[in-house]
Design brief:
Distance between the termini of chain B: 27 Å
Number of helices of chain A: 1
CATH topology of chain B: Four Helix Bundle (Hemerythrin (Met), subunit A)
Oligomer: heterodimer
CATH architecture of chain B: Up-down Bundle
Largest sheet of chain B: 2 strands, antiparallel
Largest interface: A-B, 23 and 32 residues
Order of helices and strands of chain B: HHHHHHEEH
Radius of gyration of chain B: 20 Å
Structural class of chain A: mainly alpha
Radius of gyration of chain A: 22 Å
Order of helices and strands of chain A: H
Strand order of the largest sheet of chain B: 1-2
Helix content of chain B: over 70%
Number of strands of chain A: 0
Largest sheet of chain A: none
Chain lengths: 51, 235
Amino acid sequence: MNDYVAAAFAVVWFVLLVYVAFVGLRTARISREVELLTRLAERRAEEDRAP
Amino acid sequence: MTEPAVGRRSGGRDAAVWAAAAAVLMFVAIIGGFFIAPEDREGEIQRLLYLHVPLAVMSLGAFLVACVAGILYLRRREDRYDEVVTVSIAIGLLFVVLTIISGSIWARGFWGTWWRWEDPRLVTYLIIALIYGAFFVLRSSTDESRRGRFSAVYSIVAFAAVPVSFYAVRAARDTVHPVALDSDGLQIDSGIFFWLLVSQVAVIVLFVALLKLELLQRRTDRDLRRLRVLLEDGA
């Protein structure tokens, strides 16, 4: 394969993968947030049940 | 106006289906472009066409989507259109960067130089990149209450630069940028054109997948912030 073709494909795919990694990091942050809010909601439910 | 979170479950499935379709189509386009499509007189380097042209076309397509969403926002004042404007421009800019990188590599291999300032297509495309790159700087410095309206107007006004770039290469006599389709018809082999179309469809589907994924993430993030405020206020 021509070196220039290989270089262009490599760079484009690398940038797309970096973008996917960035989306993955954001998903992980949203997931942590969901976990935190679930704990908060559970604690509130326990407080409401307590006499 | 915000979309209810409950109805968004199918949005996640939608994004996954589009992403899977994009992956399959990209794979088919790469195999076809590299191993099936005929080679023209430029030789192997011509295969960059299957990457560069669809990305360039879709970058301008993304700005068209932003422009249409901007018009819809001004008519209906719904936040979801403002989100489409922002996300479309962001993905369009990503495609612009990839277009310029792949184009520069092709130019280095074919012309022996990374860039040609005398070529109207290259310069007008760079101007478009700068116009849309400025969007995020200006948006973030705008008052939050007017941000949606500003973004909508900007996306519509900025789009005026897109046809200039598209027709520059056709109108200019001294351009060195190759054109696949002009007023005289198809300038490339029909086999090459077929695989170019397949690559174009793959990049369009990739754009839709990224758009859906980004919108889903933004809306989920916004819901979470609302939920957090509700839970903390009630605690």
